[in-house]
Fold this sequence. Notes:
Blueprint: H1 4-15, H2 26-31, H3 39-55, H4 58-71, H5 95-104, H6 107-122, E1 140-142, H7 143-160, H8 166-179, E2 180-181, E3 186-187, E4 190-192, H9 212-228, H10 232-250, H11 276-291, H12 299-314, E5 315-318, E6 321-324, E7 327-328, H13 345-348, E8 353-354, H14 358-371
Helix pairs in contact: 3-4, 3-14, 5-6, 7-8, 7-9, 8-10, 9-10, 9-11, 11-12, 11-14, 12-14
Amino acid sequence: MDYSVIDRYIDRLIEDTKPEAPIWNIENIRHGKAPGWNYIDGCMMTSLYSIYQSTGDKKYLDFIENFVDYYVFDDGTIRGYELETYNLDNINEGRILFDLYRETGKEKYNKAIELLHRQLEGQPRIAIGNFWHKKIYPNQVWLDGLYMAQVFSTRYAGERAGGDYSDVVNQFTNVYEHMYDKNKRLYYHGWDYSKQAFWADKDTGLSKSFWLRADGWYTVGLVDAISYITDEQAKAKLSQIFRTTIEGLEQYIDPVGHMFYQVIDQGGREGNYLETSGSAMISYAMMKGARLGIIDKRFAQVGKQVFDGICAKYLGGSGGKLNLGGICLVAGLGPENNRRRDGTFEYYISEPVVENDAKGTGPFVMAYTELKRII
Length: 375
């Protein structure tokens, strides 16, 4: 295909966006939320910075700086951010602050990094060390949270805490040891250490299904963390988990559509569908992992095939404007007063499917930057 159309798609996303009203934050648009610091915008900032790194085109850096400056004030406080909620999602956008601080030297970015780190210093944990996903989800570990917090933690450890990655390695390892099904070779979305949540198995504490984007978050979190780790022992430990993860996922690629299903192991079941965001995450992880030498180099082409599958099925449009479809808007587990979110197959396929949401467009752009290295 003509991949240059993707460059035009990315340009449209940023040209049609104002910091207070990003067109890729469909949740905010649908619910009329006031603009505030959030992980969805964070996905897009990370992906746009990767485009800046690969092209050197300063328009991307200028856009990121202007966007983030709307949210980060001169004293380092952050629009719409509340430390006391102890929400790991709010750490994700903090990744871009390291890059902006290095690029610009603005002290407010440094102050904001320290503010987010203070949240992690006080973040509640289960007994074996993993963060609670949010304060409202006591004793619960979600795969999403490993991406949201651990890449930031890895960068903080390497740049500001003497290279001690032990906590990062422990949190990823605990997930592998407790949430990975060695028969299915997949990770469950959530784990309630206390086994009290309504969605949790009373014997294991695990949720019921294998949600694609959750496995995608964990996989991307792993490869991104590995890319920043400088300690060889820590890198080797996480690299082995990453290899196991990728090799397990490969068997679930649909042989016709070359993507992954929303509920990964239920391909062909009525209502299930090939989903963009998780497929893009795994495509990116495969290509990046192959480039870094963590996994076999053949995975660069496997990841490319997944990316091409996304483009073939979901990248299209009319009137000269491309759209990226097939994106699950959101999914989660609970809380207690929202029992619809019960982790079943029926739940995961019931959530809205949208276009151009950054949970899909962000990973898609990240995968594109990796693709550009091999074509």
